[in-house]
């Protein structure tokens, strides 16, 4: 299973949420918001990776020679 096919783990979300929290000057009381934002960002990144792979595979079909 490639990296973009496996589920996003809570550890990955936790790490991204922590990074977002730090970048935003560590505000109190926004744990859920940062968790949800982190999850959304990771899902979007995985979706973009899947689209890029699909496009790459489609281009390979059309290569001549």
From TrEMBL:
<dbReference type="Pfam" id="PF11154">
    <property type="entry name" value="DUF2934"/>
</dbReference>
<protein>
    <recommendedName>
        <fullName>DUF2934 domain-containing protein</fullName>
    </recommendedName>
</protein>
<dbReference type="InterPro" id="IPR021327">
    <property type="entry name" value="DUF2934"/>
</dbReference>
């Amino acid at each position: 299973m490639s990296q973009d096919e496996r589920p996003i783990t809570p550890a990955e979300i936790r790490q991204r949420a922590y990074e977002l929290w730090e970048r935003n000057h560590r505000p109190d009381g926004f744990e859920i918001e940062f968790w949800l934002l982190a999850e959304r960002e990771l899902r979007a990144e995985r979706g973009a990776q899947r689209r890029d792979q699909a496009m790459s595979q489609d281009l390979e079909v059309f290569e001549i020679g």
